[in-house]
Amino acid sequence: MEAPVVSGIAFNRDEAEITVAGVPDVPGTAHRLLRPVSDANIELDMISAQRTARRQSRSLTFTVHRDDYAAALKLVAAAAATSGGASVSGHNDVAKLSVVGVGMRSHAGVATRLFETLAREQINVRLVSTSEIKISVLVDEPALERGVRSLHTAFGLDREKPHVTA
Q: What does the pLDDT look like over 119-156, one tens digit per residue?
């Protein structure tokens, strides 16, 4: 029997997002910014680096547990202060929403359906992280339940499973 493409939806409300914009686009920048957070035993989750319009700079965004948000924000702001022109911002009212399934390894279009479904619900995707069997997106927490319901429907997870009798 073939595994379903998406077998479940998972979510975590305890997320916070931190962005450092305008950091130099040179080797070691991410290490310099994130080392103090790791040294404080704060776990990082979703991480994205993006080149900005200013060719020599990048934006680095990552998530931490909401309980660690204030401490991580302070540590990153101190590290970023040594990068002239870098700015630090954050949000602690975000949630991670994931579609999971081993069938995703061999099927195209899962991410497209996820983005289309959330767009139809007017849910903005703030950050994306992927693996072979999972696509996670960061969304504003007030939209989380609506996103979970709509993705359940989009991937057919709200249908009753047939009962098997021997």
A: 999 999 999 999 888 999 999 999 999 999 999 999 88
Instruction: Sheet with 57-65: list strands edge to edge.
Output: 44-51, 57-65, 8-24, 87-100, 134-140, 127-130
Q: Tell me the pLDDT tens digit for each residue of 41-51.
A: 999 999 998 88
Can 8-12+94-154 and 16-92 be said to share one CATH topology?
yes
Beta bridge pairs of residue 135: 99, 130
Question: Can you identify the CATH homologous superfamily of domain 16-92?
Answer: VC0802-like (3.30.2130.10)
Cα separation of 166 and 161, whole Å?
16
HSE at residue 42, side-chain half, CA atoms within 13 A, is 23
